[in-house]
Known about the structure:
There is one protein chain. The chain has 374 residues and is an alpha/beta fold. 39% of the residues lie in helices and 22% in strands. The chain has 13 helices and 15 strands. It has a 7-stranded parallel beta sheet. Helix 3 links the parallel strand 6 (68-71) and strand 7. The model has no long low-confidence stretch (mean pLDDT 97). Bound molecules: NADP nicotinamide-adenine-dinucleotide phosphate (NAP). The site of NADP nicotinamide-adenine-dinucleotide phosphate (NAP) has 26 residues, from helix 1 and helix 13.
Amino acid sequence: MRKVGIIGWRGMVGSVLMERMREENDFAGCEYTFFSTSQAGQDGPVIEGRTYTLQDGDNIDQLQSNDILLSCQGGGYTSKVYPELRKSGWQGYWIDAASTLRMEKDAIIVLDPVNRSVIDQGLATGIKNYIGGNCTVSLMLMGLAGLFEQGWIEWVTSQTYQAASGAGAKNMRELVNQMRIIGENCENLLDTPSTAILDIDRNVINTLRNPAFPTENFGAPLAASLIPWIDRAMDNGQTREEWKGISETNKILGREEKPVPIDGCCVRVSSMRCHSQAYTIKLNRDVPMADIEDAIKNQNDWVYLVANNKEETLKELTPTRVTGTLDIPVGRLRKMNLGPQYLSAFSVGDQLLWGAAEPVRRILQIILQHLGEQ
Ligand code: NAP
């Protein structure tokens, strides 16, 4: 029986992963060990009535007794533990949600509905590191991979509307707390129907600008506002989040030698866990809309088209609709006034599912299947 160790199972991504593994009955057929860096010896998850005792996530000897290790623990942990493990001679498979190893030559970024052939080639050639991609990149590819596969894309811009969850659990709490304070401060004005709207507006902006307004995690108000900066600065004026668009997409697609140009502005908005993106796509020829629609909707089992009208858009193409599901709706699809080769589209996806936990969950099953076939 294969031995699988999971580190980071109680964090935000790890919790979503555990939920999905339970739903898919993934815990059957393997021997699992759960690790923690702060709770070793305590009770861990209960699976099928069995309570697992947590092992020490920093203990290299215990870690290396596993055939596969899956970490949702974070980049700091990967940087510390992964090199030690390999130095100790461990030959197992390393699966990771953190970005640390993504661009390494001996690592594959996993999004199997899109790059199963790249993954299979990696397994066949002995690659041992399989890393989940950036959430925005994975969600864009789950929506648009059909167009990439057809070879129709000359370039893409993606203007993003990214959820608080991408910044972590503390940030999600801060967002809701900000919303509460805004609501509480203007409660009386709101309850009086005759209040002038500009008085409500003034009340809200005064709340946001009050130095006591809680912004420790985001660094600025997000509720009733937005933040057009995610991650750290790169030398070329992009943020790192924007840089991942071109670098990770082309690595996932296995076309680093001939990359498709991708760029855009990544913006944090006040949705909880769904990222949305507005695309401008330059096609390399005037492809008929029916062909474009077919290519998008037939690429995988989770993407679907939303009719470009108000009713369907409000019903299907929002974070409210998509949160907690694996659905990838693509809508607002139309040729642009810029010319028949310019396409506009909009997509939404749950960044904790396809953006984080699901590709990692699936690669574990793919590796187990590969080992079973050896
Ligand atoms: P997280 O919620 O901060 O969890 C990481 C670890 O923090 C846990 O495994 C746990 O480890 C420890 N922890 C301390 N206090 C905790 C508490 N009260 N509740 C739960 N855990 C607590 O991290 P995350 O947001 O899931 O991210 C994990 C990795 O995935 C990161 O590398 C991140 O960049 C990557 N990722 C995140 C997203 C996202 O949307 N957030 C998307 C894609 C990839 P111990 O048991 O060892 O204490």
